[in-house]
Amino acid sequence: MSTLANAMDVLKLIARLRRDITVTDVVTELGLPKSSASRTLSMMAGYGFLDRDAATRAYRPGGVIMEASYHFRASRNTASLVEEALDALVRETGYTGYINVLDGADTLVIQMRTGAGALQIYTPPGSRAPAYSSAMGRALLARLDDDEVGALIGTKLDQGRGHAPKTRKDLLARLAVIRDTGWALSRGEYVTNVAGISSAVLDPATRQTYAFGIALPAEQLSEALVERFGATVRDAASSVGKRVGDPYWLGFGATAALT
User: Fold this and answer.
1) The pTM is what?
2) Using CA atoms, how far apart are residues 214 and 111, in angstroms rounded to an integer?
3) Which of 89, 96, 234, 246 is close enough to 241 for a disulfide, judged by CB 3.0 to 4.6 Å?
4) Parallel, antiparallel, or unpaired: how do β-strands 59-61 and 50-52 relate?
């Protein structure tokens, strides 16, 4: 493996562990020989990519990384990155895309991008729906723990249609699947005949969570299409989440790399 690839993996390891790292961490987590781990860390420190604590001898991001990070945070924010990711999804799939946020127990549309596909029904910004009854809403709810979901939603789930969860137990089971897979699916559960595939990203600075994804005619869904677009939406959210330091996506990527 090249020195540059090793350096990239070291920086990703710091982001995942969210603490200073040692040679032992690099050997254990990345599987590098001790000599290679030590050489990589020393070289990165020599070029300013890492700093080494004089007392603990552990490594942390150095001046070069911090300056670049400051520039990134100053010039970009999570919302703008989510919008860029949505634009790319709409171009790639041809379907209409949305960005939603939670507003109490509802999901609220804040952005819409019209696709080139055949879906004519659309939900304009400002529209809201019960969060449990759509892919957007469930992607957002999955970022809460079960107690928070219960306090927010309660036990009455009577506004959904079709495949929407009917009980709190059903909803929590679906949220557990979303946390495992990284994306949510709905099939005409609030807007008739319209399916949705969504994922979510947390802005660690503001604690605001954004769901984004695509809407498509439910009759067009096939298992192959669901898996394809589910992975596409998940990967788009993962890319944004890792760039902004969303702990879920940092951990998700690490888990996926081990499987």
Assistant:
1) 0.70
2) 12
3) 246
4) antiparallel
